[in-house]
Write a structure and sequence with these properties.
The protein contains 5 helices and 12 strands. By secondary structure, it is an alpha+beta fold. It has a single domain, classed as 3-methyladenine DNA Glycosylase, Chain A, CATH 3.10.300.
Length: about 240
């Protein structure tokens, strides 16, 4: 069981007690666990990133769920996005986040890695399966925006109700340890538009982070974005 409590204090930049989720002025503090340590230890070196993504996918998808209103959702489809000086994945949405925050963007919602002045990223939630006594295919949600609509469909406009806020927690029952398959990310950009989009993504980062220099050539950036197997899908 994960113990957690509601706090109103401002913890500043140093957090020792676990995942923080900001919501309407409150901060929810979850006791430090293996997953938050993993999110805080994101590597900068390109050589280490593929293995890190694979290990993190197994840890997240085989041991943790998203819980809301007493319902647990198994995480069955995710994509990794990470920009570092060595691993210039420019499609990554710029952000300044602590490890373990929900970061909303145009494509969906990420579970974030710890950001620095030159490094940022997170895990896009692409697919969820409601956990029930009898597996039901109709209780599977596929698509990043559909996952957002499922988890943040409605909540009180006047008070913070704990059960309405989606949190990541250890599964209450053992999850199936099914095979987790690496795949190419689903990036809806046509071939003839890739160069234009890459230049846009570069400018978006350089505008947000003035000290970041994107020095990889177009082919290197394109190969990283469109040919890396950074999507992980858990088989039924």
């Amino acid at each position: 069981m994960v113990l957690w409590s509601k706090k109103r204090e401002d913890y500043g930049d140093f957090v020792v007690s676990g995942i923080l989720v900001n919501f309407v002025g409150y901060k929810y503090c979850v006791i430090m666990n293996e997953l938050i340590k993993q999110l805080q230890s994101c590597p900068a070196s390109a050589d280490d990133i593929s293995n890190y993504f694979s290990e993190t996918a197994k840890l997240l998808m085989n041991g943790y769920v998203i819980s809301k209103r007493g319902v647990e959702y198994e995480i069955i489809d995710i994509e990794f996005y990470l920009f570092t000086p060595e691993h210039q994945d420019v499609i990554t949405y710029p952000r300044n986040c602590k490890a373990g925050e929900w970061f909303f963007h145009q494509s969906g919602v990420d579970l974030t890695f710890a950001s620095t002045e030159k490094q940022f990223g997170g895990i896009l939630i692409r697919g969820l399966r409601e956990i029930s006594e009898k597996p039901d295919p109709e209780k599977t949600t596929v698509g990043p925006l559909k996952c957002v609509y499922l988890l943040w469909d409605k909540f009180s406009a006047f008070e913070v109700i704990d059960a309405e806020i989606p949190i990541i927690t250890k599964a209450s029952k053992d999850l199936p340890q099914n095979k987790i398959k690496p795949l190419l990310r689903k990036i809806p950009v046509k071939k003839d538009k890739q160069t234009e989009k890459i230049n846009y993504w570069k400018q978006r980062i350089e505008k947000k982070f003035e000290g970041v220099k994107i020095d990889k050539d177009l082919k290197e950036l394109s190969d990283l974005i469109f040919t890396s197997e950074y999507r992980f899908v858990k088989e039924p």
